[in-house]
Design brief:
The complex is a heterodimer. Chain A is built from 17 helices and no strands. By secondary structure, chain A is mainly alpha-helical. Chain B is globular. The mean pLDDT of chain B is 88. The chains are: A mainly alpha, B alpha/beta.
């Protein structure tokens, strides 16, 4: 199965890793005890999560009034956070599905965690449309469930309803895709498990994976089919999220550029978040040989490109505002750049358009510290992008008498922190219980792209003297 | 229903001789029931442990248990009428005509009662003479259900009975009969009370009545009395006015009791190519100044000189004024226009100066003004400040034996209040007629608790010749007694005031019942007022001399005024009024000094918006010999430099709820009842938090309020003053209303009713009556100061007020259109920033905005659960039950008229207003749902009212006549700015209005196709 890979390509797996090493390295975080740092970070995340739950409980029991919203600005941090988390969720599917279809093998080291991130962030995102409702206990009314309320049915004209479908589809397809990939890896852990409890649990999680050829064949087929299904979702989810704004009549929202602009922004922020997480994870879980500088560099390139697309979109928006000749539109964008929220606009511009341009420099894009810093900056910038779109468009729209400002309360902030906490609680638990790298897939490229095998191949004479005895690389000396 | 049908069960029945069938037909059970076998088996019966007695016990117990269990759950005691009153039909409203006369507001009103509860006040449109229901009158129904009202009479501060109070008061009255007995009362303007006082004087000869207007009109009254020999105020009917020159008179607001705005508004609507021309000279920015065609901010001192200069030009005489060129020119122009208007011209004056008032009366006489009416004067202000001052002196000297205070609160409102309070303590018998424990009642020996006017009888002669009647609309809620009844009782009479009133009412040709039903009767009285004139006439020449020589003594001139919402503060405990935004500053729950931008800069007084948009401002210290107060300051465009304004009526603390104890008491500055005072102002430390409902004050040069001038309007070319917005369709400019550029498929709207509303921006004065009416009709919650500050006011109907950023709105638009590029002198970057700031002397415009009921509503498409949907009748429905509260609709509303229930506003201690106590909840309109938290709400075009009209007509089997359809706001708008009706009725008024050239829709270019339309505002510069 090993393709020949040109020797000028850098190895995707560095270090002298053998198949057994891969197994050991990837099973290690699951099988070993948690260290102090893990407990520390987990405790912090848990506290943040519990604080968020407190804030949500307070909101639901008292009313949305505990947030900073008002008659003019009906959405602010709630939908900003929603779009931000959905955006982050985009990298996972892109990496696992689109890159699978494009046969980008470097995805194999990162797709598992990227998809985990996707699922966990979509969970965070899904929280907001529910809790931002004035009466969240009636949230099920947005589902087209047959009911006895009379002729009441959902309104298929509403982009919010499309959101419901888009997000739930995305979550389910991502989850299935993720789990499918996990099956052989769970089976690996099951097989290595020492305690009956672990064996039982991983046995259940792996859905009785047997490792037969038929299993593998079906595995490959399902992966391909799901990749095909998930690929349009990468484009559709954020397109539909952008419809929330694009189909409205509010200057600054009513923009046809939104779908591609939102998708680019989502990929942008998603990759940044993957970078944030993996740069830490590769260190903590000693996975530097799997998630290499090359991986980080490639992701930085994606960040640079999508960041530039987003930058072009920002400038196009300004151009269109001017070119449209609509005074409300023109003022909306002028106000973004120079009004009371200009600080948010320029934070966004700096973080999203300016900072990724550093990636043109090889030295910077291969620097781990710098990459980490930029990934954080990009995530901040993308949060501001949504804040700018939502709040600065709403706070000054058509009728000047209704213009006002928005200022968050501790509850707004608390819920956002809570979702970050929740996300990390999930991710940290995942890092301790799930194989964080798709080891089955990595093993499939070990021979073609592993450092050890590449070197072995290069050291071999071109005419294979031991052809009769088979491939010597199949059984490298351990 | 009994039936004789026979149902066949089998063919065997055909055979009548069949034994078996016979048998079956006669016996219920085919086989014999073995009762004997069961009962006869003694052994089995005896061995059973359940005896017959036990069995009955069990049956009894289980029946009792079952019925007890069924009794659980909330028990609501609703007591049915023993005799169903003929007039009360559950679900059907009854209307009664009555009259409010609280000493400040006088109006003939209709009261809507539901199941015996008064729930809404409307103006009585049948009465021709005065009596408009303003915002405060509309709100007064809530005062009936005020939790802070006194519930029993008080004797020495303790709850008591009427018997005790009567006994003790009469005892003390007799004991102090040797001294003066004084009635210190509001202006009642009541013929029956005047008679009653005479009767009381018969019983106690040394009785004296002193009339005290909390905010008096002494100068105008004195001038009128000196000139026309009776104590009253000239009435004005502006309907036919061609030129109105007002010097410091806020006649659109509450000047001389208010109520002039209806006819004024009529004169403002261009008819037959004519409308009035209004010139306003004033210090504070008032409603009148805001509505004027030309407004000149001038100090009160300059106003005096203006009166002098104007007089010399209109009536002759010489006046050497030191007025600036601009103002002199304006006066010259005003005089010219007045002369041109002749008898259709009128001059008004708001200066607290008898000489000035006299000159103005004289000027109107010289003009032969038909606008002014002096034969039937207004009688709603009759107080005499000098008499009150004399009373205070008498009390101080100890010559007063008893004082009865009715309808006024002098301890709060008499300037300095200490002076009155000190003297008050020396009176042996202090009796207060009050409905709450106000500052005076607190310090009285006896409080004879009075009912609300909706529980009272009475009569009021607001304008000579017409008497309005007051009748109870509900049985007194508490153990209260009217002032008049007490008077009758103490004078030894044993008839009730109701009978007394009936006997003393002499109507011209209409029965008592008819008068009561109408709410008024006309009568010709013999001269009952002002028998001898006590006021010296001031020589016109000397008045002219004094006025033209008027000068300031440095410092600032403080101009005290009253706010539309609060008036003199009688209704300070009314949350509707506290939350009603001031029409000019749009600030709620507060009073403050208004200061001109120039002076503010000089004094380093700042106003700025904080992070959530709310307005913060500096404090200022205002000093006036001995009085010093720290008062927040609002920078008021249009305020005359060198003057500050301050509203009276705030700062009450006695007998009202803590939340309503807002603002600063300005009465200490109201020295001798004079509204203009010389003060010094300096900045003080600290930051005050204002609660404004509008934070952006200019229109940014946008096409929101369409304006034009008379000259352009008269060209008759609609494109000049009311162009239809166009979009390009295949490079052809197409009107946005054209179906070719419409993305939507419309359904047929020509069948059935289709409601439209029109708002005439010329007739709207910004008075706010509609806002309160909407509040009352639709159970709109009050949210309190902090929530308003967070931009969460719930008003379904708001009146936007815009200042121009340059000299006029037209210039604003020209400036915006002139922007070129981003930078530089005409750059939009700096330009829009400039447009945000109002001019120092701006034009002002008002625009009532409620849900526009778009036929292509942006809110309807975005709701995921279809809680916002359109009706066949044009209304945009908000279905509260279905709403899940995503707020998407509010975001997508270009008009920003949707209001969200951020919290539970009823039955929630955090919002301790009328919806949080059983008494206050009685005002709730049962036809309208009280919204829960988490749902969106907004104007429904009063669907409960239109549906009622439709149902009534359907029941009667008739067509609906034009004018039957109404909303709370269109009913409340006595100025005729809001009209409402069925656009499918081609004969209707609304249909005609829609065809007018001035008609436009707000934000037409968005393509929302609203069912609310506006009429272009026309200004008559009269060049």
């Amino acid at each position: 199965m090993a393709h020949y890979e040109a020797s000028i390509r850098r190895p995707l797996i560095t270090g002298d890793k053998t198949y057994a090493d891969v197994t050991r390295d990837i099973a290690f975080p699951v099988e070993g005890p948690a260290n102090k740092q893990w407990w520390l970070v987990f405790t912090i995340a848990l506290i943040a999560f519990l604080y968020g739950i407190g804030c949500i409980t307070y909101t639901i029991s008292t009313g949305i009034g505990v947030w900073g919203l008002n008659k003019t600005v009906g959405w602010a941090w709630d939908i900003t956070n929603f779009v931000w988390w959905v955006g982050i969720g985009h990298a996972g599917t892109l990496i696992s599905a689109v890159l699978l279809l494009f046969r980008q093998k470097w995805r194999m080291a990162i797709n598992r965690s990227a998809e985990a991130m996707t699922i966990f962030s979509v969970i965070q995102a899904g929280l907001f449309p529910i809790i931002h409702m004035g009466r969240p206990w009636l949230a099920y009314w947005v589902l087209p469930i047959p009911n006895q309320f009379g002729s009441l049915w959902v309104n298929f004209n509403s982009p919010l309803l499309w959101d419901v479908f888009a997000i739930s589809t995305y979550l389910s397809v991502s989850l299935v895709f993720w789990w499918t990939g996990l099956l052989p890896d769970f089976a690996m852990i099951r097989d290595r498990a020492i305690t009956p409890f672990n064996k039982k649990i991983y046995g259940i999680l792996s859905f009785g994976w047997s490792g037969r050829a038929k299993d593998w064949q079906r595995f490959e087929e399902v992966s391909l089919v799901l990749a095909g299904l998930a690929t349009p979702l990468v484009l559709s989810v954020h397109t539909i999220v952008s419809f929330d704004f694009a189909t409205s009549v509010i200057p600054g929202w009513h923009t046809t550029i939104f779908p591609p602009y939102f998708v680019a922004g989502a990929v942008f922020s998603g990759f940044a978040m993957v970078n944030t997480l993996l740069i830490v994870m590769r260190k903590v879980c000693h996975l530097e040989n799997y998630i290499t500088i090359q991986h980080i560099e490639l992701m930085n390139l994606v960040i640079m490109i999508t960041g530039s697309i987003v930058g072009v979109a920002y400038i196009t928006e300004l151009f269109m505002a001017w070119y449209s000749g609509v005074e409300y539109e023109q003022y909306a964008f002028l106000n973004r750049a120079t009004g009371p929220y200009a600080w948010a606009y320029w934070s966004m511009m700096t973080c999203n358009v300016f900072s990724p341009q550093f990636m043109w420099f090889k030295k910077l894009r291969t620097s781990i510290v710098f990459s980490f810093a930029i990934s954080i900056v990009v995530n901040i910038g993308m949060w501001f992008e949504r804040f700018v779109i939502i709040v600065t468009s709403l706070h000054r729209d058509y009728i000047p008498s209704s213009w006002t400002m928005f200022s968050p309360t501790f509850v707004d902030i608390g819920i956002f922190i809570g979702t970050i906490g929740f996300f990390f609680v999930l991710f940290l638990l995942y890092a301790r219980t799930f194989p964080v790298i798709a080891q089955a897939e990595v093993k499939s490229i070990l021979r073609s792209s592993g450092n050890k095998y590449k070197e072995m191949r290069e050291n071999q004479p071109t005419s294979n003297q031991n052809a009769a005895s088979g491939d010597p690389m199949a059984h490298p000396s351990e | 229903m009994a039936t004789t049908k026979k149902y066949w069960k089998s063919t065997a029945q055909l055979d009548s001789s069949n034994e078996m069938i016979k048998n079956l037909e006669q016996n219920e059970f085919a086989a014999a029931v073995p009762t004997d076998e069961f009962l006869g088996n003694d052994k089995a019966m005896e061995s059973s442990s359940t005896s017959r007695r036990d069995f009955l016990k069990y049956v009894g117990f289980s029946t009792a248990a079952a019925s007890l269990a069924a009794c659980e759950g909330p028990v609501i005691h609703s007591v049915p009428y023993v005799n169903q009153p003929e007039s009360i039909i559950p679900g059907i409203a009854n209307y009664y005509a009555t009259t409010i006369a609280d000493g400040y507001d006088f109006a003939s009103v209709l009261v809507r009662t539901r199941e015996g509860r008064p729930i809404k006040i409307e103006g009585n449109r049948d009465i021709a003479a005065r009596g408009n229901a303003n915002a405060r009158v509309h709100a007064s129904v809530l005062g009936l259900y005020d939790n802070n009202r006194l519930k029993t009479p008080l004797v020495k501060g303790k709850e008591s009975t009427w018997a005790t109070l009567d006994k003790e008061v009469r005892q003390q009255l007799n004991a102090n009969a040797g001294k003066q007995i004084v009635f210190l009362t509001q202006t009642f303007a009541s013929p029956s009370i005047a008679k009653l006082m005479e009767q009381f004087k018969a019983a106690y000869p040394n009785v004296r009545q002193v009339t005290y207007d909390t905010i008096g009109e002494d100068a105008a009254l004195d001038a009128f009395e000196a000139k026309y020999f009776s104590r009253g105020l000239a009435d004005y009917d502006f309907e036919d006015a061609e030129c109105i020159v007002s010097v410091g008179a806020d006649f659109v607001g509450d000047w001389q009791g208010g109520g002039f705005d209806t006819n004024y508004a009529q004169s403002r609507v261009p008819k037959n190519g004519k409308m009035s021309h209004h010139i306003q000279f004033e210090s504070n920015m008032s409603l009148s100044g805001a509505n004027a065609d030309r407004r000149y901010p001038v100090t009160p001192t300059e106003q005096k000189q203006i009166i002098a200069a104007l007089y010399s030009k209109v009536a002759g005489g010489s006046a050497n004024s030191s007025l600036s060129d601009k103002v002199s020119k304006a006066v010259e122009e005003a005089a010219q226009k007045l002369r041109r208007a002749g008898s259709k011209g009128v001059v008004l004056c708001g200066l607290p100066d008898q000489g000035a008032q006299q000159l103005v009366l004289e000027m109107n006489e010289r003009l032969g003004s038909t606008i002014m009416d002096t034969t039937n004067p207004i009688l709603t202000r009759q107080g005499s400040r000098s008499a009150v001052n004399q009373l205070v002196k008498d009390m101080e000297s100890g010559s007063v034996g008893a004082v009865f205070v009715a309808g006024v609160d002098p301890v709060y409102s008499y300037d300095g209040s200490d002076a009155f309070a000190k003297a008050w303590k020396k009176v042996p018998l202090k009796v207060s007629f009050a409905s709450r424990l106000d500052a005076t009642a607190e310090q009285s020996d006896y409080v004879a608790t009075t009912p609300h006017y909706l529980e009272s009888w009475g009569d009021v002669e607001m304008k000579k010749g017409t008497v309005s009647l007051m009748q109870p609309t509900i049985k007194p809620l508490f153990d209260t007694r009217q002032f008049q009844d007490s008077l009758l009782k103490w004078s030894g009479s044993d008839i009730t005031y109701k009978d007394y009133l009936k006997d003393s009412s002499v109507a011209n040709g209409s029965s008592w019942n008819q008068s009561l039903q109408d709410g008024f009767y006309t009568a010709s009285f013999s001269e009952t007022l002002g028998g001898e004139v006590q006021v010296p006439n001031i020589n016109n020449a000397s008045a002219l001399r004094d006025l033209s020589a008027a000068a300031t003594n440095g410092g600032y001139e403080l101009v005290l005024y009253t706010k539309t919402a609060m008036g003199d503060g009688t209704q300070a405990n009314n949350p509707w009024l506290q939350e009603l935004p001031d029409p000019i500053t749009r600030t709620t729950w507060d009073n403050y000094i208004t200061i001109s931008p120039k002076d503010a800069e000089k004094l380093e007084i700042e106003n700025y918006n904080v992070a959530n948009g709310a307005l913060d401002g500096s404090y200022a210290i205002v000093k006036m010999n001995g009085v010093e107060r720290k008062i927040p300051a609002i920078i008021q465009p249009g305020q005359a430099v060198g003057t500050i304004g301050l509203a009276l009526g705030y700062g009450r603390t006695a007998g009202i709820q803590e939340e309503m104890q807002t603002g600063v008491n300005a009465f200490p500055f109201f020295k001798d009842g004079i509204s203009v005072q010389s003060v010094s102002v300096e900045a003080a430390g600290g930051v005050h938090e204002f609660a404004c409902t509008q934070l952006q004050n200019t229109m940014m040069g946008r096409d929101i309020i369409r304006e034009t001038d008379m000259a352009t309007y008269l060209t008759g070319n609609k494109d000049n003053f009311n162009p239809m917005p166009e979009v390009s369709l295949n490079h052809i400019e197409t009107p946005v209303t054209s179906p070719d550029v419409d993305l939507w498929e419309s359904f047929d709207r020509s069948v059935g009713h289709h409601f439209n509303m029109s708002i005439d921006l010329n007739a709207c004065t910004g008075c706010g009556a509609c806002v309160v009416a909407c509040h009352a009709e639709n159970n709109v919650p009050v949210v309190g100061k902090m929530e308003v500050r967070r931009s969460r006011d719930m008003h379904w109907l708001r009146i936007d007020r815009y200042y121009s950023s340059t000299d006029s709105f037209e210039d604003d638009e020209a400036k915006k259109d002139g922007f070129s590029g981003l930078f530089g002198e005409n750059g939009s970057l700096g330009g829009f920033g400039e447009l945000e700031i109002p001019a120092d002397e701006p034009q002002v415009a008002f625009m009532p905005v409620m849900c526009q009921h778009c036929n292509h509503a942006p809110c309807e498409t975005v709701c995921p659960v279809a809680a916002s949907s359109h009706s066949r009748q044009g209304q945009n429905h908000m279905i509260y039950n279905r709403c899940v509260g995503t707020r998407y609709c509010a975001n997508n509303c270009p008009y920003k008229v949707r209001r969200f229930n951020w919290f539970l506003y009823n039955g929630n201690d955090e919002f301790d207003y009328h919806m949080n106590n059983d008494l206050g909840r009685m005002v709730i309109n049962p036809d309208v749902t009280v919204r829960s938290r988490g749902v969106m709400e907004k104007c429904s075009l009063c669907i409960q009212m239109t549906q009622m009209t439709i149902l009534e007509a359907k029941k009667d089997g008739r067509m609906i006549k034009d004018g039957e359809f109404a909303t709370a706001c269109s009913n409340a708008c006595y100025n005729g700015a809001i009209s409402f009706g069925d656009i499918n009725d081609k004969a209707s008024e609304i249909y005609k209005v829609k065809q007018q050239d001035r008609m436009y829709h707000l934000l037409e270019e968005v393509g929302t196709e609203p069912n609310v339309m506006y009429q272009v505002k026309v200004r008559n510069y009269n060049n």
